[in-house]
Structure formats: structure tokens, C-alpha cells
Amino acid sequence: MHKEGIKEFPYYVGINSLDQLATKDDRVVVLNILGNESSTVTPISHEYSGGNVVFGTGPGKSGKFLPTKIGNIPVYNSIKEGCEAGHKFNTVIVYLPPSGVKDGVAEAVRHNPNLKKVIVLTEKVSVKDSRIMRAICQTNGVDLFGGNCLGLADSWNHVRIGGALGGNAPEESLIKGSVALFSNSGNFTTTIAVYLATGGWGTTTSVSSGKDVYIQYGPQEFLHAFGNDDRSKAAVLYSEPGGYYEYGLTSDKPIVACVVGRWKARLTKACGHAGSLAGSGDDAFAKERWFMDYFGVEDIYTPEKPIFSKKGALVTNIAHIPAALTAVMKLNGQEPDFAPKGNLDLKCWFANNQGVELPAELDIQSEEAIAPYNEQIAALEKHVGAQFRRETLKDASGASMMDPKTQVSRIHNTSILDASTHTFEANLVFALVRQYPCEYGEKIANLALNGYVSQHDQATLAVAEASRANGNSPNTVAAGALSVVGKKVAEKAMQASQALLDIFQYEKMTDPCEDFDYSHLIDKGVEQASAFLADEENGCATGWAEIMNSAGKSVFVSFLQDLAKKQGKSLTLDALMAATWMTLGWASLKGKKISKDTLVRLPWYSRIYSTLVGITAPAASQTDSTFCGVELKKLITEFSFTRTAFLALMGREPSDNELYEFQVLLGLIITNGPGTISAQGSKGAVSADGPEQPERVQVNKAFIGFLTHTGFAHGGNGYEAAAFLIKQFKDTNLTDAADKNHGLDLEEMALTCAKEYGAYKAKQKAIGNLAFDKIPCVNHPIFKGKEVNYDPREVFVNKLFEEKGLNNVFLDYYHQLVNGLFKAKVSKDIYCVNIDAVIAVILLKMVWKEYKAGKLDERDIETASFSTFLFGRMIGCAAEIDDHTNRGKNMDTRTAASQCVYIS
Amino acid sequence: MQITGMLWGRKLLDLVEFPHSEVRGPELSVDEIKDMIKRHGQVFIKPVFKGGVGKKGKAGLLGRVNNITDALKEKERLYFAEHKVGDSINKSDGVTYEGGVPADYEVYFSIADNTKYRAPTMTITHHGGVDIEELDKDKIIEVPFDPLTGLKAFHVSNALMSLGAPSEIISPLVQNLPKLWDLFNNYGMTMLELNPIRMMKGKRLTPVACDFKCAFDIDDPAWKRLNLPSHIFASDYSEFEQEINQLRTYQGQSDVFVINENGDVTAPTFGGGANAMVTELLGESATISSDFGGNPPYEKMNEISRITFNHWLGQSNVLFVIGGKANNTDIYETFRAIADALRTYFQEHGPKPLFVVVGRGGPNVIRGMSYFRDTLDQLGLPYRFFGFDSAMSEVVNYTMKVNNWMKNGGAEVIKGKMNI
User: Fold this and answer.
1) How far is CA A315 from CA A189, A210, A363, in A?
2) Whether B31 contacts chain A with CB within 8 A
3) Predicted confidence (pLDDT) per residue in A498-524, tens digit
4) How many domains does chain B have?
5) Which of A350, A374, A347, A202 is nearest to B389 (CA)?
6) Are A370 and B387 an interchain contact pair (Cβ–Cβ within 8 Å)?
7) How far apart are CA B319 and CA B385, in angstroms?
8) How is residue B408 annotated by DSSP?
9) Are A560 and A524 in contact (CB under 8 A)?
């Protein structure tokens, strides 16, 4: 049963010409107008169409309105209420949820006898409801469109009805022309219009049909109306598999058909003959054949093999539509509507190889985007540096992680094993800027770090000495000293950094060690000159700049020197400090690895690093010109910071081998993930300051948090293993732990120790003492259970040392010991020597000579062990502090009261 | 979501009191089989497949027995039989025993939505029991009818008359077939097929359904009223598809198919058109086919991405986010959701070498690309983002080339650069 419409159709169709589909006279009502999608889309449609929406509905929302630039659209509870208010309309747009769509359509038909069009945007309307809606509309003489469509648009009439064809900028794609567009895909309706413009073709009417089982307004109806529309000279049909909608289509005008989706044929699950009758035989191959038969062509049109007829062409790639259309139309004596707008070549808007060398054909460079996107991208370039999402960082970190499988911790995604092959200074920089410095970077980092390492005559050293004198542990001593290193210590250098950042941030300079023309920035520098320059020359600053220039190139230093020259003034030490850290952090900033806040704060971290190492050396070893007996000038200009740290710790310079072992040792200690107490201490300190206002985070206090969260059990316990080894070796003649020809029978020593330990263990068990002493640094909860067990971290370091020809008698002893424990039947299998042993044996090797010579006692060794831990862990905690400052939320490390437990 | 066979079909037919053959499941004992043979003279033994599996008869997966020895042999042959339909291989899990129905007439009957008529349509012939596509067109009739009034007796009567069906079968069919509309219409079906309906002899002929197929509309909750166990439909969807389907709401699409379990390009695709085209061009490189358009809210897109990444990113060389120029989908929201899910994946699974290719346009596209870009910079992943004015097919071709490079050592290069 259907109302009489156009006679050619066995069902009701009211639209006779495409120019009737979306007209200036259509008055529209939107159901669920204040819904999420409608409230975004409807105002744009309303404005584009010159105000065609008369009202909207929303149950319980009567009296509200939807604001648009050309006036508010009133909202009523129902269509009935809107009609009673005197509104007239002929079109209804449905944005209701699926379960309400059918009822909405019924309501519209029932209350408005003048209704002519219903457009259903909603997706996932059930097939049953589609059937019923169709029947209702057929009975009442209403043209139904959709569901799951994006409605109709007419470039000539400047009208868009239902949905969002053309998106939020309809004018960009709805360009007036001679092509009528029908598409199963809403997105492709717009995309094809954009593509057509590259061939010089504009559109008349665009129909997004939807792709549900029921396509209520199908290609048959569309082509009928196309035939009667004088504006439309050609049609483009985009079809996907399913349904017989395209079967037997004809037209007096040319058509380009695009059929996509051959792959869907293989998804068809066997579903019986009814399914076949209604569904199969209508896959992409079949549809292609229908069109080819109609066009009288034997193949698909491609640019390489352009096959077409006067009737049209078939393509299977929407990018080929413009060319196919132009070819077909040429045969029909028609030229494009306008000069081509742009082209469909690849246009890369954003590109980054991340340092990977790509083959030339893949290494497509970014280019300027079309307007207005180029302006938006240009505005983006003003966003310098990383912008992190803030989240609760309790027990979480963006800096470190421990892999529970391998037990190897990572910092900024670099395993500590790899980190241990880098120098101390490189790791200190890496912790903050998230990439390792180049050779020049390490040199200038050494300058900045060594330049402030001497604490002679500083309050920091006085506090440290007082603390030491009163018997505090190294972490407590350091915490006291760092409390002095407040923000003001580095404030001027940070101001200079901020000034350099302000001047250079929008420049396309990615590597400050390469040539860069900054002449246009000098004037900006003049404005900020007070941050960099002083009237009096500072010899240290001059020397610093000279060394930086002789070692390599820093655009920032050159810039500052030119500025000073122009102003007839001299550079300050703070300016050089700023220039140094800007050079070290710039590439990371531009690569969005670090934030601007981090870059500016780097001088403060630098001073803290220097102080923590500096106060480790006793006051007695620091004078106004020397540090641990080394001339300061020599130390600043020639020493690596790793060497300086060894010097501060041991009071002597290391050999090359010792230096390397020390570096590895520090690397292994860097982090054990965010769960360790030291990391938790530093993160808690940041959290308490409120990282959401990063300028209020006290960096030195955060380091104090780290320091107070180390202690005799965490950081000082490395001594246990050293003490165990001392016990084993103190009565031997061993003088040099690096000497391969030590003359000791390590196997025998280890076996004896193992037997003694076995006897001790048996005795303790016999008396019921299960808390008996364990041999430190053997066995591991993860690396166990095999006949012979290895800790991969120990294996890595052992191999590293073997390659360097570095011998360590204590490590050899440990390897013998795990065998001895097995032979003595203390262990069921051969335990691994774990990573803590590695740390202990490197440390003990460093101090063994002094210990044997009586220059150090066991307490000194414990202190050195603890201080070494603090040096290494300082790297990891610096990374945590900066990460938490950038990503964390205020007080995010607290535990909810509900999760706390009261122990009675 | 399909059901084939009488094991479950009989239960549905019982709802509308449509007669069917005696059907027993795999639990039947030897004595009970003997008893069935005794009562019916002939018993059909059919494998039980989950989901929609057709053309079993043609494949020889039908046992017709009249003694217990043959019955047990057929049971053994068919219990775990394999059946290849197209690219999919189905494995049976059990058999049914269906009592033979002696009859002179076999009828084919179905109701389905027919796109030619754009209406529910009955298809009927009294030359049933055969492959219906092979029947001459004049021996079968399609009758569209009004969904508001449903399938009526006169539809059946007129159809059979015009086919010239024997008069003795018309009345019983007219009485019984309209019941099937209630089954079709009330429980969210899109297709219902009985083939054959055997006209059992008696005082008068009785139509007895001897095989059953139906398909349900996933967007119509009416099928849930049937309380069918979920395992019936389990084989229709992969684990990944089932997980994504749980997020199925009308706000934003979430339609996915697994294309190649060993694919190495994972492409979250936006829009049905882009999905159709990109999946076709990616071919076997694609892990999945997806359509995530329709302006999904952040939370949904993030969850979809999380599930997709967890299932497919581990094996992928390229993450390919592709769509045309969106009409309504907020690109900032969707890209933010994808980027955050990618970051979460790296946090939970550790970093992996990946090349990211993006092609998209639409509202807030630059804000969205910017957020995505910054995330990739922080994760250290190389990428190319293309404007919507680049031919989508060219962007796919570029992706394919990247994938080839990744397979031939590129992934290792990125791995090295990322310190993995």
C-alpha cells in the first residue's frame, strides 16, 4: 500500500528533480536537536542554508533553544507542541537514538500532513524499524532518506539538510558545478566532492544515501531526478557491495560509477538460500559487471588503462573519479566547470624520521598545507616543547620502569645496562633532556658541572661538615647541604635561559651546534640584554666561552658573544650557564621530548648535581684554588665530571680502568623503577609542592626527598656484600684486586666458605633459627631454578669488563662461590651471582689498596659505598623529579584514607 | 548471527507451533537411536555447526540411515566433520538425529528483506529440497508484502496458485506458513528459511520443517528474548570482534572484521567508504578491517583503540590511521583517544618499532594531528601525516611501501634507534 507518486516507480517517490531535494523553501524540524551530534551539526547547516530550521524537539526540553550565529532555534517537547505554536515545516531530520527513530518518524507523519521529506541520520536502526518506517512513509506520501546517512546538500541552492555534508566548513567542498553526487558513504560524499574539484568539477546536489539494508532513497530514484535536473550534466555514483539497488540503472546523461569492496565477498558467511536470494549475487564484482554492461565497457577505468564510453566509466578507486569524469564528459562535448583546484598528489603535512634514515621514496618531506590549514599549522609551531598530559603519578612514572621479566630497569626507555656504558655526565644530562649528548655536549656539560663543584667557603660545605661531624650518614649530610641550594642559587641563570628561549623558541633551528643565522634576533637580544650582560668583565665567563668555542660550536654562545660585542659589555657566568644548558637541551625541546619549563630549570639541576658531588669531599680537601689536591682550573677545563666524582669520593684520581669501572657502577645504580623508596621520596616531594604550578616546585627539596628516602637499608646496604668479601680476603696477601696473578686459590677459598656456611646454616636450622644470615648477592627470585643460573645483568657487565680486559678478583671469587655452594650441597643448583655483587666488587676493588694500606677503615668503605649509591641514584631521581613536575598532579602520591590500614 | 540446523531451529519453531520433524541431539543413546529408526523407518544424521553454515547436503555431510550399524558409522563420520565454505572452515561438534518424514512434496519457504522490492518478501516453491538457485525462475515466486500487516494467508494462497501447486498442499501451507512471520518479525530476524518443508502424509497433509536457517539483526535487541546461549553465535565472531562488539552503541561506529591474523598493518579506518577502499588496497597486509567513524566520543574511541592495539599492534609494522575528510567526526577527540591508547600500550607492553602513517581531514584536524604528532615524538616513533587533499589510495600505497621497508630491515633500524 502506497500513496500515488511518480508513476515509473512501483512504490511511492515524490521527488521528480534533484533541484527539489534540498531547496531554499524547505522548512526543517530536527528531532533530538540538543543531542550531542545535532547540537554541533545543526547550527552549521542552519547558518549555511540561511536559517531553514524552524524548531527542534527534545522531550522535557521545551523552552530551551539551540543557539546559532543567525539566531536561536526554539526547542519543544514534541512535534505536536511545535505545530501548536504555529510552526510550519515539510522536512524532518531525525537524530534520535536508534530505538526512538521509528516512533519519531511516526510522530512526524501523524502530526504534519504537509510532511514531504524525512531524513534519518541515526546509525544502527534495526532492520525491522526500517521496514516499518518505510511503510509508514510510503502510505503517507513522504520521501524517506537514510538511515545512517549524512543527508542532502545542494551547492546551487546553498542548502544543507540533515547531517554534515561538507563538515564544519561546507563551502570548502560544496562547490557549485554540474555533477550530481550519490554515495553510500557519508564521508565519501564530501571526499569525492573535494576530489572532483581537483578535476575542475563542482556539484549540484549531493545525496548521502546511507548503507543500511534498506536504502530508502536509492540510485533508481536519484537517477530519475537527475534526469529531470537541467543543472546536472553528469552523475557520480559511489556504491558498496550488498543489495540490488544498482541493478538495471539507466540514464540519458553520463555517469561515473565507483564500486569499492571486492574484499567483502570473502566475508560472506554461508547463510542459506534466502540470504543468497536477498543478499548474494550483489557483491562488488557483480555490481562492477552491472555498470560495465550498461556502459558498454570491458574493463575498469584506470589512469594507466583509461576505458570509458559516452555513457560513462567504472572506477574502483575514488581518486580516479575526476579523470574518468573528465574523459567521459569530453566525449560528450562537455568541459570542466572551472579550473582545477589543487591536485591529489601526496601532501605530507607532518613528518619526522626520529633520526632513522629512510629510503628516498619513503622520505617524503612535509610541505605547506592548503589554506586555512597552513595558518593553523603555523600557529602550532608556536607550541614549542612537549606538553604532557597530567595524570596521577602515584607509583607511576614517565621516566623509569622495571621490566618484571628481565629485572632490568629502564630510564627514558634505555636499559641501565646500556646507560652504564655512558659517562656519569652524559647520564646526568640524559636524565633531564631525554637524549644523550654528543661529544661536544659532554664537554660543555663537564664545564658547567665542574665549574660549580668546589664548595669552598660555601654554606653548603659548612652544613655538610657540621652534619658529618655529628655522625650523620652520607645521605643526611647531602640533604642538609642541598637545603641551601634554593632557587635563588640558579635564578639568574634560569632567567637567562628564559630570555634565550623567548628569543629563539620559534626559530627553525633544531641543532644549536650547527650554523644558524641569528642576525635578525640580535635586536630581541638587546631588549633582554640585562639577563646576559654586565659592565665588568668576568674572567671565568670569558674563559668558559672560549673553551666552548674551541671545543665546538654553540649558536647560543656565539649569539651572546655578538650581543655583548654590540652592546660593548661582557657576558656573565649565568649567561654562560644558561647558554650551556640551552645547547644541551635545545634538540630535545624542538623534538618535543622535554617541556619549556624543564629547559629553563636545567641550570638549577646543574647546581644541585655539582653540590652533591662537591660536598662529598671534606672541607679540608677544598681550598680557593684546589679540589682534592687538583688545581680548580685544571679540574674545570680538563676533568670529566665522572673523574671529579671519583676524586671527591676517593680523594685521589682514578686510573683509566678505574674510571671506566666507576662509570659502569654509577650506571647500574641509576634506577630500579618508580616503586623504589628513593624515587618515591623524590616524587612525593614534587607532589607536595604541586606540580600543576611547576614554577613552585622546589627542585632542591625534591632531591632532599630522594636523599631522605635512602638510608642504611636502601643505599647503604651495598656494604653488606663488601663486608662479606672483606671477611673472606682480609687475611690474604691480596694487594691489587685487578691483578690476575694474585696467587690465591679462589676455588678452595670459596669451597671452604661454602662448607662453613653449610655447617652454620644446618646448625641454625637445628636450633630453629630460620632468620639465619644469608650470603649476600647470590641467588635471585627470578633467575633461579635451572641447573646453572645467571643474572643477565651480571653477565652483561662481566662481558663488558672481559672485553676491556678488566679483572676483578672479587667477582671471580663470587663465581667460584656459587659453584662451591653447589658442591658443598648448600644449594640444589648453581645459584646466579646477582647484580648487587657486581656493584659490591667494583666498589671494593676501588678501595682495596687504601684499605690494605690502612688508609681506610671499614666505616670509610661503608661511607664510600653509600655515597657512590647516591651519585648513581641522583641520575634516576633527577629524571623522576622532572617527570613528576611535568606530568604529575598536586598531591597525587597520597593514599586514600579508605586504603590505609590501622594496626592495633 | 545465524542459526542453522534443527537442533535449535526446532525450539524456535515450537514458539509459533510450526510442525517439525522429531529432532534429537548428540546425547542420544544407542537404544534411543534404534527406537527412532524403528518409529520413523529412516533417520537423518546431521553434523552440528555453530553459526551460519550452508550447503551441507552438497558436501555429503548428511547421513541417511535405516539401521543402527549405519547410524553409528555415520555418527562417527559426522561428529567432528569439517566443512569448508568459501574461505572459512567449520568444524562440527556433535550430530543431530532427525526422524525421516515420508512425503511426496517438498516445499521451499523463506522470508527475507529484499532490496529489489525494499520490503519483506516471501519466497516459495513446491519444488523444494534442492538447491534453490538451480531452479527455473518460473518454478519459484517472490512475494513482497507490507510489514505493517505482515505475511497473510492470501499471500501464500495466491503465490501457490500462481505456481500451479497441487491443491492438496495449499490449504495446510496457508494455515501454517503465516505463523512464521510472527517468528521472523517478533525476534529480530532478517532471514528465515525452511528447506525442505516435507508435506507429511496423514488424514490430510501436514507441513513438517526438516531443516532450518535464520539470521538475526545485531541491531535489534528482540533476539535476546529467545535466551539463546551465547556460544551459538560465538563462532560468528573472533575474540577481537566480540570484544569490540561490546562497545556497540549508536554513538560512533565500531564495526570490525579480522582480515588476516598474520597481517602486519593495523589500520583504524574512519568511514564506511574509507574502510571499503583501504581494506581492499591493503589486501592481506591488513590485520583488520574497521569502521570507527560516526563521531565516537573520546572514551569510546580510546577503549576501541586500546582493544585494537592489544590484539594487533604487537605483530604490526605500521599503524595506519586513515579516513577521508570527516563531516562530523571531531578529529581532535578521536586522535587524542588513539594517541593516548598508543601511549598506554607502550607503557603496558614496552616500546616496539612502529611506523605511523596518518591520512585524515575534518573538524579540528590540525589540533588532532598536533596531539598525535607530539605523542609520537615523545614515543620516538617515525611518522608521516598526509592532508585530506592527498589521494587516499596514494596514502595506502605509501603505507604499503613503508610496510615492505619495515619487513626488510626497517623495523630493526627503528628498534636500534629506540634502544629496544
Assistant:
1) 16, 20, 30
2) no
3) 999 999 999 989 899 999 999 999 999
4) 3
5) A347
6) yes
7) 12
8) I
9) no
Containing domain of residue A457, as a range?
Answer: 423-653
Domain identity same for B410 and B318? yes
Final residue of a structural domain among B166, B201, B236: B236
The reported pLDDT for the residue numbered A272 is 35
Lowest average pLDDT, out of A59-73, A279-293, A494-508, A529-543, goes to A279-293
- Chain center to CA of B399: 29
Instruction: For residue A592, give the nearest of B87, B293, B378 by CB distance.
Output: B378
Percent of chain A past pLDDT 70, that is, above it, reads 98
Phi, psi of A436 (to 5 degrees): -75, 140
> CB of B147 within 8 Å of any CB in chain A?
yes
Of A316, A353, A591, the CB nearest to B382: A353
Cell of A99: 530505538
Q: What does the pLDDT read at residue B350?
A: 85
Is B118 in Cβ contact with A351 (below 8 Å)? no
The whole-chain average pLDDT of chain A stands at 92
* Same-domain pairing of A729 and A619: no
A580-620 residue pLDDT tens: 999 999 999 988 889 999 999 999 999 999 999 999 999 99
Given the cut 0.90, state whether the ipTM is greater than it: no
Cα separation, B122 vs B225, whole angstroms: 24
Q: Do A362 and B419 make contact, defined as CB atoms within 8 angstroms?
A: no
Neighbours of B66 (CB within 10 A): 13
Per DSSP, helices labelled H in A336-423 are 373-380, 416-419
Q: Is residue B237's pLDDT more than 80? A: no
The amino acid occupying position A171 is E
CA angle A894, A895, A900 (to 5 degrees): 145
Q: How many CA atoms lie within 13 A of B321 on its CB side?
A: 31
Last residue of one domain, picked from the residues B100, B119, B153: B100
Mutate which of A191, A321, A382, A390 to disrupt the B interface (most B C-beta within 10 Å)?
A: A191
Residue A172 lies in a domain: no
CA gap A172, A175 in Å, rounded: 7
Q: Which residues of A touch B409 (CB under 8 A)?
A: none
Give Cα separations from B266 to B285, B289, B365 (angstroms). 8, 9, 21
- B70-125 confidence digits (pLDDT tens): 888 888 888 888 877 666 677 788 888 988 888 889 999 999 998 888 999 999 99
Domain that holds residue B189: 1-20+102-236
Question: How do residues A474-496 score in pLDDT, each as one tens digit?
Answer: 999 999 999 999 999 999 999 99
Identity of the amino acid at A412: H
**Average pLDDT over chain B, rounded to whole?**
87
Same domain, B408 and B297: yes
Closest chain A residue by Cα to residue B218 = A126
Confidence at residue A275, expressed as pLDDT on a 0 to 100 scale: 35
**pLDDT at residue A84 tops 80:** yes
Contact A186 B418 (CB under 8 A): no
**How many angstroms away from the CA of B319 is the closest CA of chain A?**
15
Specify the pLDDT at position A276.
36
**Domain boundary, last residue among A653, A682, A698:** A653
pLDDT digit string, tens, across residues B27-41: 888 888 888 888 888
Interface test with B, best of A350, A373, A417 (most B CBs within 10 A): A350
Residue B252 pLDDT exceeds 70: no
Measured CA to CA in angstroms, residue A62 lies from A35, A58, A77, A115, A582 at distances of 14, 7, 5, 22, 60
Residues of chain B positioned with their CB less than 8 A from the CB of A369: 366, 387
Structure pTM?
Answer: 0.67
Task: Decide if A234 contacts A329 (C-beta within 8 A).
Answer: yes
B72 and B115 both lie in a single domain: no
Alpha helices in A201-320 (DSSP H): 219-227, 272-279, 284-295
Find, in chain A, the residue whose alpha carbon is nearest to that of B257: A267
